[in-house]
């Protein structure tokens, strides 16, 4: 059995000759919570883009659950089991959190038919569980537009989890959040990490310290170093890269 959820082997992504990723070799185990950090322009977003198939490698290959994703379109890779959370929350503001979750937990139906047809008992149960997990049971039936930014972020994470992805990619989930909201997102990701493989990109070092077990530092499109948060924070190469910003 393949124990790696995602691997990049010697991946280079060139934009007009500029290497956003430069022979990047990375792997992450099934069930791991990994945090990827790095200064601006290090290649973090491109790294997620290459995993999801939004961007094709110029060189090297990407494996998801041991399968080379080269010939697959972005939606086909997503269907293999990748859920991606972008920085800004993408939720239906006029619908309630419960309705948002009902729609995404039942991908067989489109948005309209899932709104106007009743959910099965199992689906309703799943949504109730998700509302609890994301801490929004008390606000399940108000318009999502009334939620705080942090609550919307948690709702979107719940919507992705409702699709039962094998890998959850989370791009800077706490940008613009208060300390308290940031802490809630951290606790949510730690709870989800008990049963999911999660890759988080983040800038906020306090947050990284809250959630990180293994950290990968990207710099100029390559892995600069990997280790526990203590190891990478004390690595002279990391200190130099961050101080040099
Ligand atoms: P990060 O997310 O770490 O800030 P990015 O992956 O966004 O880094 O970008 C890495 C580098 O690649 C940056 O210098 C950026 O300007 C460049 N880059 C990213 N996407 C493109 C693109 N579509 N065309 C040209 N250059 C790009």
* Overall form: globular
- Listing every helix as H and every strand as E from the N terminus to the C terminus, the arrangement reads EEEHEEHEHHHHEHEHEEHH
CATH architecture name: 3-Layer(aba) Sandwich
The assigned structural class equals alpha/beta
Report the major sheet: 6 strands, mixed
CATH fold label: Rossmann fold
| Fourth-tier CATH superfamily name | P-loop containing nucleotide triphosphate hydrolases
Estimate the mean pLDDT confidence: 91
Gyration radius, to the nearest Å?
18 Å
Give a quick set of tags describing it.
245 residues; binds adenosine-5'-diphosphate; 10 helices; Rossmann fold; 26% strand; 6-stranded mixed sheet; alpha/beta; globular; 4-stranded antiparallel sheet
Would you write up a description of this structure?
This protein has 245 residues and is of the alpha/beta class. The protein has one domain: P-loop containing nucleotide triphosphate hydrolases (Rossmann fold, 3-Layer(aba) Sandwich), CATH 3.40.50. Helices cover 38% and strands 26% of the residues. The protein is globular. It starts with a strand and ends with a helix. Bound molecules: adenosine-5'-diphosphate.
């Amino acid at each position: 059995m393949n124990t790696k959820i995602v691997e990049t082997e010697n991946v280079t992504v060139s934009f007009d000759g500029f290497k956003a990723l430069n022979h990047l070799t990375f792997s992450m185990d099934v069930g791991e919570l990994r945090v990827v950090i790095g200064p601006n322009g290090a290649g973090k977003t491109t790294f997620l883009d290459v995993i999801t198939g939004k961007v094709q490698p110029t060189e090297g290959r990407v494996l998801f659950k041991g399968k080379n994703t080269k010939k697959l379109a972005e939606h086909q890779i997503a269907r293999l089991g990748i859920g991606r959370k972008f920085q800004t929350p993408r939720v239906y503001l006029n619908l309630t959190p419960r309705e948002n979750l009902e729609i995404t937990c039942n991908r067989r139906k489109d948005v309209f038919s899932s709104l106007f047809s009743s959910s099965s008992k199992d689906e309703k149960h799943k949504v109730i569980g998700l509302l609890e997990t994301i801490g929004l049971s008390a606000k399940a039936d108000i318009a999502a537009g009334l939620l705080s930014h942090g609550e919307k972020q948690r709702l979107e994470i719940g919507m992705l989890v409702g699709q039962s992805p094998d890998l959850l990619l989370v791009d800077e989930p706490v940008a613009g959040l208060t300390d308290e909201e940031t802490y809630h997102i951290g606790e949510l990701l730690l709870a989800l990490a008990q049963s999911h493989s999660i890759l988080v990109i983040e800038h906020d070092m306090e947050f990284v310290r809250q959630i990180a077990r293994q950290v990968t530092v990207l710099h100029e499109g390559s892995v600069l170093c990997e280790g526990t948060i203590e190891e990478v924070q004390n690595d002279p190469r990391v200190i130099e890269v961050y101080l040099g910003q």
